């Protein structure tokens, strides 16, 4: 009789809950609260039947309680994040308007890049929207699938590359181009799952990091190696906290070993560092790009410069140096707004971490924020002369399918985690 009364009360509450995901958590919370209240009342001298009756009365009207809980425990869309993303995509279109023609195995007019950019933006928004409505917790089932896909990409590039670029080998299969950066999304998901596994240990983590680190180094992807290392370090420190010491020590040792191959090319690296520190010493060589970018940024003005002849020489003005392009043509005011919006995107991710109760969801956001921040901070810093120049895209602004897909995945996963923050109270490690 007592159990029937308790069940009847809970059933009435659950009738008001629309989210199927929330019902299980709410039912568990209600049962726990009712049991605690009954135990307290019995200790105060009430009989079990009286305690059962009073416990449900104290909980209040089940219909009213259900309506209140439905408002609290429901999927939520982060409209601020979506708005910032849409504005960012809109601003990313502006640099494409400044491209009259670009030589790339033939002359591609500006319209080619404009059309492609529209397609890339639509794909990016589709990925963000699709992932947002997926349950991110289901990703746990594919830990070794993600790792296997990353290793498969590495092996293809090691053994059957079709050509080599300055960032490493690539494999062209029809219109599809496979490069090492394509492994990063899979590694990001793999690490988030691995670090939330009960069976994780130092040796598993160390082996996974060592194998992937040396693959990326061998493939010559210094940019993505930097992003990868910072991503993994951030996730390990956040998830393992006090237990992260031995893992970080092992990672540091692996990274130091990775420096050894650079000794054979130390003159090249020293010349690059010298060009960064003092570009005037080699104005026609390593220092040339530093001086040209500096001049363009100085001539940008508050509202832009319409003299396109001065920037036509700039290589990668739509990718790695897109911020130079943007600032020169549209001015420091709009460039400042762009930086602010990207900073707000990053801040939104970081601030939301504490609102998430699920450790797996937290780890996904930490890793995603790390990937986003390295690209954002490094690209802006190298443009204004605070860091050496390298092939580093500016999130969502740089032209290119892969960078946009990667950052769309990150934002999509963030929105998926955020959407369930009031539903998933705590998800134990697997």
Automatic annotation (TrEMBL):
GO terms for cellular component: cell division site; plasma membrane. It comes from the Bacteria. It is a multi-pass membrane protein. It is found in: Membrane. GO terms for molecular function: lipid-linked peptidoglycan transporter activity. InterPro entries: FtsW/RodA (IPR001182), Perm_prefix_1 (IPR047928). Pfam families: FTSW_RODA_SPOVE. The keyword Membrane applies. GO terms for biological process: cell division; regulation of cell shape. The chain crosses the membrane at residues 79-102, 114-134, 146-167, 173-195, 202-219, 225-240, 247-264, 330-351, 363-384, 396-418. Keywords: Cell shape, Membrane, Transmembrane, Transmembrane helix. This is FtsW/RodA/SpoVE family cell cycle protein.
